[in-house]
Write a structure and sequence with these properties.
There is one protein chain. With 362 residues, the chain is α+β, with helices and mostly antiparallel strands. 24% of the residues lie in helices and 37% in strands. A 6-stranded mixed beta sheet has the order 7-8-9-3-10-11, sandwiched between helices. A 5-stranded antiparallel beta sheet has the order 2-1-4-5-6, covered by helices on one side. A 5-stranded antiparallel beta sheet has the order 14-13-12-15-21, with no helix packed on it. The longest helix is centred in the middle third of the chain and has 16 residues. It is globular and about 70 Å long.
């Protein structure tokens, strides 16, 4: 099919390791697919195969109706024939070239005036004007990141591949650049495939997500769907669902299931599959805390809980609760301070029924 990036392949390594990739994404407009999973699961290998830097052993890679790789037909286009932009994890800027010459490196097909205009426009867009004659070691980490991004885009590639683009930055700068990266890329009609193992980064940047573990794809789909409805326990663990408890469905009525978790009753959207034993998944950000029980509220579940621990995590605070079973909440620092939350104090927990995801358990 034309109009899309379609890939399905395997890359095999000595010792029996196999990295299997499958991907579909629009080819003619901006969208971002995130390859997500723990270190060593095969994300970068999949990215390098798309770029042509590594050659799969079986399968195919097609872009907008053009075959880049097909093992059965013995087709293999080299990286320079694919017209792909690749941003490496460490940025790989040339230390002996100025910022201008780094960005202009792949523009040898343009004359001097065209090159000047193209690079100048990118430097202005990425807020790098005035740094043209500096060298990479003379600018900040955030500026280096933007230079690497400008260089990857300068050739106006058909596909942009980003390998952990924010991992080299400190946490404060990473938070700042995360909000800027998607805005920068959204101005270009280029599909993007991005590798990360950072959950916040995946949620903030991605349209589609491919969750990987051990060289295989566990689940893929729209980011919100995958993070709110993991397919199984493995995916729930990889995407960082804070609370996973074993429960038992005791009743189903009007599409809502009453679930018993350690004797505590919860209301949740009933699973499509008929089952009795379930894994109850609750994300920390879907848990709301109040000082006292509410009257009218849209939350079907109101539980009394004791705060067992609080752990600050940058702008957020992770809170361990005992409400008859162990539950984790994730709140902002201002919310934590406003509620004056302290260990061993009592609070009311509010959870909406659609925020509780039930997976059949053996």
């Amino acid at each position: 099919m034309t109009g899309e990036l379609a890939a399905q392949f395997e890359r095999r390594f000595p010792g029996g390791t196999v990295i299997a990739g499958e991907l579909r994404q629009p080819a003619s407009k901006f969208s971002m697919t995130v390859l997500f999973g723990p270190s060593g699961c095969g994300k970068t290998t999949l990215l390098r195969c798309l770029a042509g830097l590594e050659r799969p052993h079986v399968g195919f890679i097609r872009f907008d109706g053009e075959t880049w790789f097909d093992a059965s037909q013995r087709v293999y286009r080299r990286p320079e024939q694919r017209d792909v932009g690749f941003m490496f994890q460490d940025y790989a800027l040339f230390p002996h070239l100025t910022i201008f010459r780094n960005v202009a490196f792949g523009l040898r097909n343009l004359d001097a005036l065209q090159r000047q205009r193209r690079v100048g426009a990118l430097l202005e867009r990425f807020q790098l004007t005035g740094l043209e004659q500096r060298y990479p070691h003379q600018i900040s980490g955030g500026q280096q990141q933007r230079v690497a991004l400008a260089r990857a885009i300068a050739r106006q590639p058909r596909l942009l591949l980003l390998d952990e683009p924010l991992s080299a930055l400190d946490s404060t700068l990473r938070d700042e650049m995360r909000t800027q990266l998607r805005r920068h890329l959204g101005d270009f009609a280029i599909p993007v495939v991005l590798v990360t193992h950072d959950r916040t980064e995946a949620i903030a940047l991605g349209d589609q997500i491919v969750v990987m573990e051990g060289g295989r794809i566990c689940q893929s789909g729209p980011v919100h769907d995958v993070f709110t409805h993991p397919r199984d326990l493995s995916v729930a663990r990889i995407i960082g669902v804070e609370t996973v408890q074993l429960g038992e469905i005791v009743a189903v009525e009007n599409g809502l299931a009453t679930v018993s978790v350690a004797g505590v009753r919860l209301l949740a959207v009933a699973p499509t599959e008929t089952c009795r034993r379930v894994h109850v998944c609750i994300r920390g950000e879907d848990v709301t805390l109040e000082r006292r029980r509410q009257g009218e509220t849209s939350a079907r579940n109101q539980l009394s809980a004791t705060i067992k621990w609080l752990t600050p995590e940058g702008p957020l605070v992770r809170i361990g609760l005992d409400c008859g079973f162990a539950l984790t909440a994730l709140v902002t620092r201002p919310a934590c301070a406003e509620l004056n939350l302290k260990v061993e104090e009592r609070v009311t927990v509010l959870i909406k029924a659609p925020a509780i995801h039930l997976m059949p358990a053996p």
